[in-house]
Amino acid sequence: MALKVVDEAIQLHGAGGISQDTPLAAYWMHLRTLRLADGPDAVHRRQVARAELRKHTQEKI
Ligand SMILES: Cc1cc2nc3c(=O)[nH]c(=O)nc-3n(C[C@H](O)[C@H](O)[C@H](O)COP(=O)(O)OP(=O)(O)OC[C@H]3O[C@@H](n4cnc5c(N)ncnc54)[C@H](O)[C@@H]3O)c2cc1C
Known about the structure:
Helix content: 55-70%
Low-confidence stretches: none
Order of helices and strands: HHH
Bound molecules: flavin-adenine dinucleotide
Distance between the termini: 28 Å
């Protein structure tokens, strides 16, 4: 979500949004890195799905 917000802010600022006149480009880079640094998004989604499914089954997931 944060990445989407920053991306939209960059768009609103036009080329200025990707210049070093605003911190937006740096924000985007740091936020994008976080989608990997703490584990890939896909792995987070899988963990959430397993936790939710565990609530509804006795089987080992
Ligand atoms: C800035 C930064 C800081 C980091 N700091 C740390 C740290 O402090 N401690 C630490 O231990 N590691 C750290 N990492 C490593 C980080 O956790 C790994 O880069 C991350 O887990 C992805 O592993 P990988 O790069 O080997 O990519 P891969 O494991 O090769 O993943 C590449 C892609 O494959 C897919 N994928 C991989 N595994 C699965 C899965 N199980 N299910 C579905 N899809 C999958 C995803 O699409 C993923 O984006 C850091 C990385 C960065 C960039």
